[in-house]
Amino acid sequence: MRLTIHHTTRYSFDNPVPFGLQQLRKTPKSTPNQHILEWHTRIIGGQKELVFEDHHNNVIELISFEPGVETLELVSEGRVELNDTHGVVGRHRGPAPLWLYARPTQLTEARAGVRDMIRDLDDRNTVDMLHTLSARIRSKVTYEIGVSQPDWSAEDVIKAGGGVCQDHAHVFIACARQMGFAARYVSGYLLLDDRTTQDAMHAWAEAHVEGLGWVGFDVSNGISPDTRYVRVATGLDYSDAAPVSGMRMGDAGEALNVQIQVAQQ
Amino acid sequence: MENQKIFDEMWGTEDSLREPYRKFQTWFDSEDPARLRKKQRDAEELFRLTGITFNVYGKAEAEERLIPFDIVPRIISGSEWFRLSRGIEQRVRAINAFLHDIYHKQEIVKAGRIPKEMISQNEAFLPHMIGVEPPGGVYTHIVGIDLVRTGPGEFFVLEDNARTPSGVSYMLENRETMLQMFPELFSQNRVQPVSNYPTDLRRSLAACAPPACEGKPVVAVLTPGIYNSAYFEHAFLADKMGVELVEGHDLRVVDGRVAMRTTRGYRPIDVLYRRVDDEYLDPLNFNPDSALGVPGIMDVYRAGGITIANAPGTGISDDKAIYSYMPEIVEFYTGERPLLQNVQTWRCSEPDALAYVLDNLEELVVKEVHGSGGYGMLIGPTATKKDLAAFRRKLKARPGNYIAQPTLALSTVPIFSRAGLSPRHVDLRPFVLCSPGKVDITPGGLTRVALKKGSLVVNSSQGGGTKDTWVLED
């Protein structure tokens, strides 16, 4: 399957911004199952300072703002070829040690809510058990836009009983880690059946299963990722894999507009 | 401890003058104590004029204080130093190999020589350093190894300071002061110089320039600013090296490099000797509230645009719990027996060790795993019943936070007191510079002395003083 992707992030500031930096994690990973045929980043209102690979093998571009900028536009686009792997990403490839993904983080803390969520799971088959967990999360945390906050932890999400893909991923990761699995957050692109235009990236989780390696679980859609899924950035939680994170000087307010198009070639 | 014979570096254990102090003693005996007392006062005045002071943390106001200086030098023979410096070099090479391994393949963990938890549960492990190849392969450009002595040939490492060790300005100023006060002593004794340190430091830092460096490496010193307790030292070292002293707000990412503002625009920095802790180094990647660092510097570092000295994440090697594994670490990476000894250490995270420590608290020194500066520590033999009870509670509540060590019979060196020469306990912090394939150790280092009779705490924040440290040419 070949997908073409177009992703524009536009910031409009209500005052000129004297200085700012942003880390972009919008370039898909190059892996045995996912070939980048073509990929470009264009920046209007800023410049690319450098590019590097972080400890999760994410490609990060560091962007600086043009002094006094009022509109910053980040455009990423390209073509990706995907092989079907039935959700199995495969063996762990460093550089980070596997145990790093077994440690809880602030967003994936485990307390009573997580402990309840994993109670009495049938553990005879690991992959089945993780699918059951995914389905259970989906039934207890309804997919609903506008319920959760971006900085909510897995426990906050369970308590509220609703959230978006990011929240589903955090809950799954927190549960998997609590059960002793290494687990990680994935942000990426998803080809939808009914439309090409979307307003946010997708997110799902991966757990490391002995013998199989990393296996993906998309809680929000109740499936394991297939060739419609493009893996972009991974990390311990959202904060490691956010498409854009940064800082800027001044007290200007901002309006954010995201437009993503994913289409089959 | 009362039963142990204290080794005095001037008089030994049997009150017979040791060779390195022979000429000093002759000179001292011929001196008029009144003149020496005046010299002692002059020396203190000199320090005040130079501005060598430090701030004590935890005081209501950032009170500036002078670290007391004692005019009696601590003297080490050339052959003693030779043996010691070989041990220090071996240890520092092992520390660098360990850091590379920990942030790459973790062979030492796979080999079962260090439990995985020592790394995976360690707050000092910095994930952002995973996979980084620091320029020149050097992690710890500057190391201060804290040593104590209990006998003629018995040196123990108390602590490896692999983050941003301070105190080197005292080493240099102490020598400068002694040369001014007592020039005759330096014609009678052949003392190895320490004054090359700033030149060596600059050369050593420049030798670790990053791939992006073009031409002669530009070096700068990053300080948290004038309110930092070691600000004097930052300014002093920048001045002696002839490089810029900068603060976070002077720096910015420009064209993929970290650059400093100058009157003629931004100028890229190749090597940054930073005296800002990891947590505050980069608000974009670490503590977002930090105003002391440079946003994006870690990104520039990973992209090969700057050398950060010392490398971020070196704290995993001088952590007090890791310390207890140093003999294994030295053997694993050098294939040699450790030349320098570790102090026996009980890791209170282990139930047997904790039980022993609780039973023998009166005889032990208990330290916080991540503590420094002599804060949060218990010295069993001199502690009150109340202190002991408080520590018992702390140990039971968070055993993993503590290690314990026996109270060592630290050596003494005389200080010049009202009564003449009086023995006081000392430690030693030699300063080590690492550059690609090379380890330079300045002969001597900083001798800290507990000025209170019988006290074992030499930290300047706890009433310790300093001495000039001599290594003789044999």
From TrEMBL, chain B:
SUPFAM superfamilies: Glutathione synthetase ATP-binding domain-like. Residues 73-450 form the Circularly permuted ATP-grasp type domain. It comes from the Bacteria. Gene3D superfamilies: 3.30.1490.270, 3.40.50.11290. PANTHER family: BLR5612 PROTEIN, SLL1039 PROTEIN. This is Circularly permuted type 2 ATP-grasp protein. It comes from Thalassococcus lentus.
